[in-house]
Amino acid sequence: MKFKDWTVLLVPDHASEVKRFRLSRKMIIGLVIIQGLILILLTIFGGGYFYRIRQGRILERYKIENQDLKVQLQSLSQQMNAIQNQLTRVNELDHKIRMVVGLEKKSEIIMGTGGPEAEQPAMSMLLPSEEADQVKLVANKLNQIDLSLDAQETSMEELDSYLKENQSLLLATPSIWPVRGWVTSEFGVRMSPLDGNYGVHQGID
User: Within a domain: residue 181?
Assistant: First the structure.
């Protein structure tokens, strides 16, 4: 048999009037529904609150990692610049040695420039635009350094081969003045101090 109404009795400890409360069936159902709705809302808002807290922590961690990555990229970029400067100095030294031994380059190579653009790293597609540009810049510098190293290696191998083939000639070629003094007459056309006529001077006085 279904109930229609509920009666709640409140009996105090001391002798006094007993209080009665009548709750209808509709009122009880309404209270149950309201409590259910409150519980659902608390669950939703509570879950959303904790979700936002967790997302905030994750975002903060990503910010720290992103900052660390930015510092590392800047440091790596500076190291790339230092390596490029060293390669430039090596190229200048190579050029000076070639001038001394009389070996000219077949083609002038500019260190650290040119070459195809490096392939975009997949990691840069997952980073913010600023960090992605930094990654691509470092990748391009690495590509340039790789090309420069290849060119410098070829140049040094050519120079080494030339020095080995012409070692005897280089050892016999004077590299300093034989004595201290002044040059009074250079090699080439000059006026003879004896007869005043012009002719080719075959040496250096």
Answer: no
What are φ and ψ of residue 20, in 5° steps? -120, 140
Q: Which residues pair with 22 in a beta bridge?
A: 7
Q: Any residues with CB less than 8 A from the CB of 184 and at least 6 apart, and which?
A: 205
| Domain extent for 142 | 5-9+18-169
Question: What own/partner pairs with CB < 8 Å and gap ≥ 24 does 56-65 have?
Answer: none
Question: Is residue 201 included in any domain, yes or no?
Answer: no
Region for 111 from its dihedrals, namely left if φ exceeds 0, alpha if ψ lies in -120 to 50, beta otherwise: beta
**Residue 188 domain flag:** no
Number of domains within the chain: 1
What is the C-alpha separation between 159 and 21, in angstroms, rounded?
110
Give the pLDDT of residue 107.
45
Residue 193 within any structural domain of the chain: no
Q: How confident is the chain (205 residues) per 10-residue block, as mean pLDDT?
A: 66 72 78 88 85 85 81 81 84 79 55 46 54 74 82 81 74 66 69 72 67
Please give the Cα distance from 109 to 154 (Å, whole number). Answer: 11
Rounded CA separation 140/97 (Å): 30
